[in-house]
Amino acid sequence: MRVLILEKNLILLSRIKNSLGEHEVRAKGDYEGEDVVLINVEAFGADKVKELKEKGAKVIAYCGHKNLELMQKAEQMGADMVVPNSQIINAGELLRKL
Q1: What are the distances in angstroms from CA 39 to CA 3, 68?
Q2: In a 3-state reduction of DSSP, which class is residue 3?
Q3: Is 88 in contact with 94 (CB distance < 8 Å)?
């Protein structure tokens, strides 16, 4: 599965990538037809979720667990799954559930 990660925090990015060992992962740039996009909506905004969905991507949005309003907005924008940062580090498991 091809995965695009939109994350600015290099430590979190590294932890996410490590959980996706069997997948083809790209972590920079624009959406290029990847199967799934993991997006930090605190860094990129919930509106980006809608843009990605319109292009045909499956989207897993994530942010801090206390940011409930932003999580709700990501759901409203069409995210296939919205999780807190603590769960995104197990991205491989999330992809299996998706």
Answers
A1: 11, 16
A2: strand
A3: yes
The single-letter DSSP state of residue 57 is -
Structure tokens at 13: 């990015």
Question: Phi/psi of residue 40, each to 5°?
Answer: -80, 105
Which residues have CB under 8 Å from 19's CB, separation 6+? 89, 90, 91, 92, 93
Q: Indicate the Cα dihedral angle 24, 81, 88, 30, nearest 10°.
A: 50
Give per-residue pLDDT as tens, 47-66: 999 999 999 999 999 999 89
pTM for the predicted model, two decimal places: 0.94
Cα dihedral 75/73/68/1 (nearest 10): 40
Please tell me the distance from the alpha carbon of residue 45 to that of residue 19, in angstroms, as a whole number: 24
| Bridge partners of residue 60, in order along the sequence | 38, 81
